[in-house]
From TrEMBL:
InterPro entries: Alba-like_dom_sf, DNA/RNA-bd_Alba-like, UCP030333_Alba. SUPFAM superfamilies: AlbA-like. It holds the Pfam family Alba. It comes from Fraxinus pennsylvanica. This is DNA/RNA-binding protein Alba-like domain-containing protein. GO terms for molecular function: RNA binding.
Amino acid sequence: MEGITEGVNNISISSESQKKNRIQVSNTKKSLFFYVNLSKRYMQQYNEVELCGLGMAISTVVSIAEILKNNGFAVEKKIRTLTVDMRDEPGARPIPKAKIEILLGKTENFDELMAAEAEEREYGGEEQN
């Protein structure tokens, strides 16, 4: 039993699965602004966010990054493109798919922009009542 416990304790998980600030973007499941707002929250929590997308979702990832940059929330730290092999089912022939990873960091005035946005929401909510 000790050998099993020791083996479990020594298992090392790759850094790929440990990234807490990574968002896997899909262009079918959620709206563009869901990912924009989620990215802002991740940047608040972790100071940076990594956006990833496969195939047709690549344009969505780029759009999210551009919205955040153009509105002054984020700066580009790293962009990586690669090809990954995907299989539809076990034993099937691998199909190459394009993948993009964009690492964004907070701008110097990120916190001010977030505070102004929260104030605007609060003020806007009072106006409607």
